[in-house]
Design brief:
Length: about 270
Amino acid sequence: MPTAAPLVPLAPLEIKLHHAVTMADGEPPLIAVTGKESVPRESAPHSHPPGQLLGLFSGLLTVRTDAGAWTIPTTHAVWIPSSCTHAARSHGPFSGWAVYVAPERCAALPQQPCAIAVSGLLREAVLRAAQWEVAPLDRARAQVAQVLLDEIATAPIDAPGLSLPREARLLRIASALIADPADARTLEQWAAWANLAPRTLSRRFAVETGMSLTAWRQRVRLLRSLELLAGGLPVTTVAFDLGYDNVSAFIALFRRTFGTTPGRYFAPAAAAI
């Protein structure tokens, strides 16, 4: 049986987690589980027939698929369609949740992996559903399950993610930047490294990722900064480790992207651990 999620299930939920990955005909339309861990955890690439929504009560999570990668805080969750290969990694201590949706109920949900904003209603519905035994739903529970499905279907898709290029040379550049976000090579230098004309690199990278190479590199740095900040590194250290010329530039870009400063970003999550 493949690993189901980058969450460590609490002992009473082990049977429920097994059912979540092997949901059979006649079982509930969705199963919710919760889990927590005091150390980082990682799941290898895997897939399962149920669709899956992954979120957190506290901490930070990175989810990767063939289509891209998302690093999400507690305010967001990642939707993974039925049978989509994915891997996940937590950064530091975390408390999280997952909702598994029966394959036949995934048709009305997003067909591509994406990150969504988590509403208070969605979070409360997850907490309610996580208390259920694996059994056919009565009317009241069926209504809560439908609320969950509706929230997944209509939630805003607005968390910062990374679309990966598919062309081999572009993917080689993208992989190098993910491995070392501080790499400051210019577009011309990257083009020479990948044996591409600069104009071709610029045009094709934008077509395949929806961003310029410069904007994509900034997104890589910001997502990596979330990981480093969640690990407890000081803001100044994070800024210089990621190649920013000064701390003020990093803080300003972080604020424009996430709506708050790096020093305050994890305050709610830290209080919840």
